[in-house]
Each structure stands twice: as structure tokens, then as C-alpha cells.
Specification:
About 4% of the residues have low confidence. The protein is 32% helix and 42% strand. It is built from 5 helices and 6 strands; from the N terminus they run ααββββββααα.
């Protein structure tokens, strides 16, 4: 009889273990918030702030690379009309400063699967290799070399529209649309080797760009916003697709 009971117990024990196999566990550094929390928005904000110091080194558990610098293989901007008509390609883009953001406001709407975020960045520094051809504010521009940009006092509004998807009998959150609107307080730009290395023309164009940076930024702003939104949509879904919703945000 004892032998039979032992067999039954063993079968039950194995069945229980099997039921937990393959179910992911959240890393210990994740601060879990509950949907029923009356202060859910504040909890999410604190959770993100808790993660912020880790972003500089990267978070392997989420397949998120280091953000200091954040490395982007390539960005292509093809602005075909208007005051800025330029096709430019930026390769090996390195962005310094993204982990320094200050989260000012978070709003979670679970009924509409929508997330709204307001944040502020004190600065961003960008370096890359560029190629460029076209015209800016009716001035012809062409070149290929190193580009540097310093951007400060940046306000950003982000809207993430999600949807719930089923996978392996679990409900996951998926970012369907990612919108970003940013405003830059100030910017300085330096493009090396403009006009085939013509120093005089290059210096004149860089001076022109810095004197008119707001006009230039306003012209290419929609293209930049779409490019940045696409990058961060992919990064966000790396997290949401890895863990079920009831694990990331339990009831």
C-alpha cells in the first residue's frame, strides 16, 4: 500500500512540475504593478525609474542592448519635397544620453490598451557616418563623412496603442502603433567633409545649418519621429512578447 501511495505521490509531483515547465519568470529587478492598484500610474512610473539605471548597461533578460551609447546600425531620411529636400543616410549611429531621461507623467488606460508617457531629456549627443545629397532651405548640400549633433532640453510625448494577442494559451500585449512627438530646446550640428572637403563651403554650410536649426528640424521632424518610433516599438515588443500580460501586469 505504501508503495502504491508513493507512486501516486510521485505522479502528482511530476504533473505539478510539468504544469510550470516553460512558464517564464520575471527577473527580480522588475517592480510588479497590479491593475487594481488605484495608483497604477504612479506604480508604473516608479517601476520604470527603477529600471532606468540598468538601461545604461543593457538588460539581457529583455534583449535590450546598452543605451550608453545606444547603437543604431542605419537611419535613412528621404525628404523628397519642401524646404528641405534631402536624401541622407546615417550609419553606425551612436546616441549618448538616452538613459538620462526624466519620466514626468505616465497614464495607463487598460480599457483602451493605451499608454501615454511624457518625458524630458537634458541632452542627446549623436555621432555617425553620413552621406547626404539635396538642398536645405534652397541651399544645395552634399557630403560624406562624420556627423555630430548636440541636442538639449528635449520634451517628448509618447502614445503606445496596444492590442491583446493569444499565444500558447496566454494573453500577451502587443504594441500595434507607436507615436512620438518631440520638441528640442536647442541644437548644434557639425557635418565634416561637405562639398568634397571644400573647407570654406563646408564651414559656411555648417554655420548656416546652426543659424537655422529650428527651420531644418521642423522640416525633417516627421521623418525623424517615425524613424525613432519604429525603433522603440520593436524594443517595447521585445518585452511584451516575452512575458504574458498577467505576469507583467497582474489583476
Amino acid at each position: 500500500m505504501f508503495h502504491k501511495k508513493s507512486i501516486v505521490f510521485a505522479i502528482i509531483y511530476v504533473a505539478v512540475l510539468k504544469s510550470f515547465e516553460g512558464k517564464p519568470k520575471l527577473p527580480s529587478f522588475i517592480k510588479v504593478c497590479r491593475r487594481s492598484d488605484p495608483h497604477l500610474n504612479d506604480c508604473i512610473k516608479n517601476s520604470v525609474e527603477h529600471l532606468r539605471p540598468l538601461l545604461a548597461k543593457g538588460i539581457p533578460e529583455f534583449d535590450i542592448p546598452s543605451c550608453e551609447p545606444l547603437c543604431i546600425p542605419e537611419v535613412v531620411i528621404d525628404q523628397g519635397s519642401g524646404a528641405v529636400a534631402v536624401r541622407s543616410t546615417y550609419r553606425n549611429v551612436k546616441v549618448y544620453g538616452p538613459s538620462k531621461f526624466i519620466l514626468r507623467h505616465v497614464k495607463i488606460d487598460m480599457d483602451r490598451d493605451r499608454i501615454k508617457i511624457k518625458l524630458w531629456l537634458p541632452y542627446l549627443e549623436l555621432t555617425s557616418r553620413y552621406t547626404m545629397e539635396g538642398r536645405i532651405l534652397m541651399m544645395p548640400i552634399s557630403g560624406s563623412g562624420i556627423s555630430r549633433g548636440n541636442y538639449s532640453n528635449i520634451d517628448a510625448n509618447v502614445i503606445m496603442q496596444g492590442q491583446r494577442i493569444k499565444k500558447d494559451n496566454e494573453t500577451y500585449f502587443n504594441i500595434k502603433d507607436f507615436y512620438i512627438d518631440f520638441n528640442i530646446g536647442h541644437a548644434t550640428i557639425q557635418l565634416d567633409d561637405l562639398f568634397n572637403g571644400d573647407k570654406e563651403l563646408g564651414e559656411a554650410m555648417n554655420l548656416f545649418l546652426n543659424d537655422n536649426w529650428k527651420n531644418v528640424a521642423n522640416e525633417i521632424k516627421p521623418v525623424l519621429e517615425d524613424t525613432i518610433a519604429s525603433i522603440f516599438k520593436k524594443l517595447s515588443n521585445k518585452i511584451y512578447h516575452k512575458y504574458p500580460l498577467n505576469l507583467l501586469l497582474p489583476k
